[in-house]
Amino acid sequence: MLTSRYRSLLFSDSSIGLRRRDLVTAYAFLRIILGINFFNHGFTRLGNIPGFAEGMAKMFENTFLPSFLVKGTSFLVPIVELIVGLLVMFGLYTQAALLTGFGLMAILMYGITLVQNWETATSQLVYCLVFFILVAGNGFNLFSLDWLLQQSRRRRI
């Protein structure tokens, strides 16, 4: 059963001519898809983090970045991707997870442009755009664990 507050949040019209319920639905699907993508990036690398780190160190060997910094960052990337992916997918601590993912993208963008891999940089810009949309549209994050927890806390008060 929908509470009147939830019904008004879900079904009120937006000022730009888009229906709020459609924006809420689209936001949920975009959030879930990004979460799945990030989760699988991390999950598929978990079994070979040392190999991933070695590959990254080799890619950056002709840059000024020290190998220990590249390897250390590379060890963390799959773990961050996995955690951010799970949180975003389920809409738990969504804003913090999205900002963490955005921060990871900034680090990855710096690295990939340093080695002048412009094709991958373009792909990463798409991720950044999706992160932007999700961060900016967090008010539409109604199909999420965050929203359910928020409602639970309100009922206790």
TrEMBL record:
User: What keywords does the record list, in alphabetical order?
Assistant: Membrane, Transmembrane, Transmembrane helix
Membrane topology value: Multi-pass membrane protein
For this record, an example GO cellular component is: membrane
According to the record, the segments passing through the membrane are 21-39, 68-90, 97-118, 124-149
Among InterPro entries, the record links this protein to: DoxX
- Asked whether the UniProt record includes Isomerase among its keywords, one would answer no
Q: Which domain of life is it from?
A: Bacteria
Keyword Secreted set for record: no
| UniProt subcellular location | Membrane
Q: What is this protein called?
A: DoxX family protein
Q: Provide the species name.
A: Gloeothece verrucosa (strain PCC 7822) (Cyanothece sp. (strain PCC 7822))
